[in-house]
Amino acid sequence: MDTLPEKDSRFPLAPAALRSISEKVLARARAGGATAAETEVAQAFGQSVSVRKGEVETIEYNRDKSVSVTVYIGQRRGHASSADTSPTAIEAAVDKALTIARYTEADPAAGLADPDRLAREVPDLDLYHPWDLPVEAAIDIAIRCEAAALAVDPRVTNSEGATVSAHESDFIYANSSGFTGGYRTSRHGISCSVIAEDNGTMQRDYWYTSSRVPGELEAAESVGATAGGRSVRRLNARKITTRTAPVLFEAPIASSLFGHFVAAVSGGSLYRKSSFLLDCLGKPVFAPHITISERPHLLRGVASAPFDDEGVATVNRDVVSAGVVGGYFLGSYSARKLGMATTGNAGGSHNLIVSHGDDGFDAMLRRMGEGLLVTELLGQGINMVTGDYSRGAAGFWVENGAIAYPVEEITIAGNLADIYRGIVAIGNDVDRRGSKQTGSVLVDRLTIAGA
Fold it and tell me: Is 96 exposed, middle or buried (0-12, 13-18, 19+ CB in 10 A)?
């Protein structure tokens, strides 16, 4: 199933070498008494360059290799890993995992994924696009990005720097059920963070672009200009009094709302009964106009994967349809604990696409009329057991459907169950840089604690 080219000097180990290591791991595990075993052999390298005030601040390189192994002796599990891929280190890691398994209590839910759920075909999802980026070129890009930010307005007086990064990785996953598969991925980015100052007050903001494909990155000058503009618009922020009002979450941060949903309906939270959405399958959780689709096979997708961390085939599905929860996020272990079947989500969700309406960002402001536009969230005040939601925030007060002035030092509070049911609309200004793609999200009301 491994479709990687056999020759490539970019990586220290050729695909055949990765396969050979995985075979040796499994053979050692079987010889040591394991009734089942799985391994992942991975390698990665990258470069990151940061500049600040036109001068190079850091140049970082990484080149990593790793081998991890999980063995089962009956239903007793042991795990070990090593950053050394030499034969001696591999043998030591396998032996350590076997020793752990022998002293571990049996767990009825432990074991490999069911063989009939393993991926039989591994489509090419176009996830690997190397960026031949000399360090001098990376420095030039970062300098141009930061310069564009500082040129936006004289009030942009300082910088936290601009960073250009390029990363590549590949891996092989194999288990004793006969599955072997792997592929290469790339992830590149440009980011910038600057500080604006006026009347003795300072505000910071940032922007970034990220893609698997270098040619799809936003231009460095555009990233910088956006970062600078976002910093300036926050100057002279005001405090507001405590009130209840509609809240519009800007698209880049609205994705966090759906991240909390994923956490609440993921296997670990469910079988530990540490979720406010227990037993929600088949029940309405979101407003009826909301659909959330999982699309693991998107070409070049940030979270695309032909199979999950256990080799289970990933599938397209609607996790939420017309507001009703249609599926959880389960790996084999959590599925067995719940008496269910794996959903191919060992390792997490894959490209969640949230449905949206026809309104752009300005139309969403007009729809809200008066309320709070949130552009930054602070802190982690979320209780996943109760759904209580309380986070520091900054953004803009909106009046008559238009931004009136920036606000800061506020807290927004509510309950996630109420927030999900209270989603009035989602804009078509979809942010596609992350694994959860959504437009701006308008919620009917939240408590806003101010001065």
Answer: middle
- Binned average pLDDT, 10 residues per bin, the chain of 451 residues: 47 92 97 97 97 96 95 97 94 97 96 96 95 96 98 96 97 96 97 95 95 97 98 95 96 96 96 96 97 97 97 97 97 97 96 96 97 93 95 96 96 97 97 96 95 62
Length reported for the chain: 451
pTM over 0.70: yes
The domain spans of the chain are: 15-231, 237-451
Taking domain 15-231, whether its CATH number is 2.102.10.10 is answered by: no
Asked if residue 448 lies in contact with residue 260, where contact means CB atoms within 8 angstroms, the answer is no
**Backbone torsion region of residue 371, taken as left when φ is above 0, otherwise alpha when ψ lies between -120 and 50, otherwise beta:** left
Element at 16 (helix H, strand E): helix 15-31
SS3 category, 438: strand
Buried b (16+ CB within 10 A) or exposed e, 164-181: bbbbbbbbbbbbbbebbb
